[in-house]
């Protein structure tokens, strides 16, 4: 029988974090689940009293993160898989977004993952290795109106994750950016901070809403099944698009991007750098 692994999952109470937590427990693994409010995990705590540990943690608080990571490793003696999932959505145009909203968004979506990564690396190195999964987005490769800061945070997370992967590979630590497609996670409802809309963007806002439609996407559990397969791969990719429809969309965007580069190739090559 395979040895049970230990997961440390941030933002574990809803959406993908909840789905990953449930999938890990169902596989016989142990989970340290954190979020600002862990009340929604009452049911899982009742059914998994020996394999689920939960406590409140604000990932935007660096000192609290370092203390929380120590507590997580102490709970079961080690952590094998770290999932940086905590995050939210800042919905609105660039002009509409306040400094407070932008900074708060990046504190959780980007810096929270940075603090967790900095805290876990020395502990993973000391135990001889482990996995870090950064929950990113299939849209991280380019900005889109009304969700520009969300995309910017995920692009930063991807770049940071790729650098981290190079830095820790020699220690047996594997890092993968999970470029998630659209799943029914509640990101656009309970996980959203909205700007005060300006009338100048009313038409564009309606256009974007029509483009996205009302389909909330598939159940996050369908993505969790893929992640359970990923963590069994000895040499995982640095980035993985998670979702068949999203894979097709990314391929289409890459083809469009290549066409634009070729259109402006002469101007690009007019500089020597």
From TrEMBL:
Keywords: Oxidoreductase
Pfam families named in the record: adh_short
UniProt GO molecular function: oxidoreductase activity
Family, per entry: Belongs to the short-chain dehydrogenases/reductases (SDR) family.
Protein name: SDR family NAD(P)-dependent oxidoreductase
Organism: Nocardia speluncae
Species classification: Bacteria, Bacillati, Actinomycetota, Actinomycetes, Mycobacteriales
């Amino acid at each position: 029988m395979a040895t049970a692994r230990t997961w440390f999952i941030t933002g574990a109470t809803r959406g993908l974090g909840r789905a990953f937590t449930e999938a890990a427990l169902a596989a016989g693994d142990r989970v340290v689940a954190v979020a600002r409010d862990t009340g929604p995990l009452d049911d899982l705590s009742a059914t998994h009293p020996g394999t689920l540990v939960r406590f409140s943690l604000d990932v935007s608080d660096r000192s609290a993160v370092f203390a929380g990571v120590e507590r997580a490793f102490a709970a079961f003696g080690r952590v094998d898989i770290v999932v940086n999932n905590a995050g939210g959505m800042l919905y609105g145009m660039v002009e509409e977004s306040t400094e407070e909203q932008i900074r708060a968004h990046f504190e959780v979506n980007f810096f929270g993952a940075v603090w967790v990564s900095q805290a876990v690396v020395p502990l993973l190195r000391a135990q001889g290795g482990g996995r870090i999964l950064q929950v990113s987005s299939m849209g991280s490769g380019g900005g889109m109106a009304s969700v520009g800061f969300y995309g910017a945070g995920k692009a930063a997370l991807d770049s940071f994750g790729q650098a981290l992967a190079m830095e820790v590979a020699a220690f047996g630590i594997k890092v993968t950016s999970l470029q998630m497609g659209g799943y029914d996670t509640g990101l656009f409802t309970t996980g959203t901070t909205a700007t005060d809309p300006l009338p100048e963007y009313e038409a564009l806002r309606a256009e974007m809403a029509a483009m996205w439609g009302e389909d909330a996407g598939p159940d996050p559990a369908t993505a969790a099944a893929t992640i359970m397969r990923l963590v069994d791969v000895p040499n995982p990719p640095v980035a993985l698009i998670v979702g068949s429809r999203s894979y097709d969309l990314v391929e289409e965007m890459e083809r469009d991007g290549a066409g634009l580069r070729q259109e402006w190739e002469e101007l690009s090559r007019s500089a020597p750098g």
